[in-house]
Amino acid sequence: MLPKRPPNDDFRPRSDAQLDRTHSPSECAAHTTQSPELAPVLTQRSRCFVVDAPSHGWRLDRYIAAQIRRLSRTQAARAVDRGGVELQPARPVKPSLRLLEGDRVLIHEYFEEQLDYDSIRIIEENEDFIAFDKPAGMLVHPTAREYGNCVTSYAMEAGLGKLNVVHRLDRETSGVLLLARGRNSAARLAQLFSTSAVEKDYLAIVSDPNGRHPVGVEGCIERSLGIDPHGDAWSLKVGEGRWPAKTSFRCLQRFGELAVLRVRIEGGRQHQIRAHMEMLDTPIWGDKLYGQPPGFYKAWLAGALGPDALAVPRHALHAQRLHFCFDHRSFTITAPMPLDFEQWLGLSDSQLHEFRKQL
Length: 359
What we know:
The chain is 19% helix and 29% strand. By secondary structure, it is an alpha+beta fold. The strands form three sheets. Strands 4, 5, 6, 7, 8, 9, 12, 13, 14 and 15 form a ten-stranded mixed sheet that branches.
């Protein structure tokens, strides 16, 4: 059994009042804001593998390493010794145990994570999909190192059932994320999102000290992308490549050396907006990977950089709007500008009111 989070009453989406909250100039004076530190929560992922005929007679540690490729034989043996592995039919386990065809191997992994389920909000829900306003800092789906801190795990804990990913947002990107209900809807929506039939609009704050983006001026960059062969293996940085990608943008406002852009993408490639903005020499504000000197991202991952290395704690990119037609129905799904954008820009109530008219 997975360890239970608090009752579902505690999984309250953000209220309309919270979403419409504005800030006085004094509240916006700080250049950056940090979320309150969250207490770590122990989460557990359990997976079951059934031993097939070719694996009959294998050692348990070898079998586990073959099923979970990121684990070495030594790490698999350590997991067995620590009691993280069970067998069905039940019998004592040890790394050298020989498996039989039909054995069920249950592997339990534990994660100490900071979960912020109160910050996620459901925007729209129907029989085919649920659209969320994903907070920055939350993953879309589990990874090798994190299980609970993602939208799909939240959905399970909140009683929404198993949802299917049809498109993705980076961890630090906030905004509209759509997950499908059921395999049939997932397949059809994934096909739809792979085409140009879905309009995807973003808000981005970019660093633009040279004034490349005057207010009201539109622009476009159409350069194919691919994994940067000169990038670090752990970063999956994108550069010039063979994946067609087009990014259009319009400058809504300027705040000193910063420009706020409305961005629309065609192609939906990994890191598309971030890579294209770097190619324009106006990288996303707060981006740790693009627009930084060599070695910056590695140093950040290693914790070798101080708190002043970046002006803001996450990259300033927000998925604002999706528009598409599905089953002869038209959908426009919008996530309001996030509170941290408002705080970073230091908007007064009147400025915020005027700015929202442009969104």
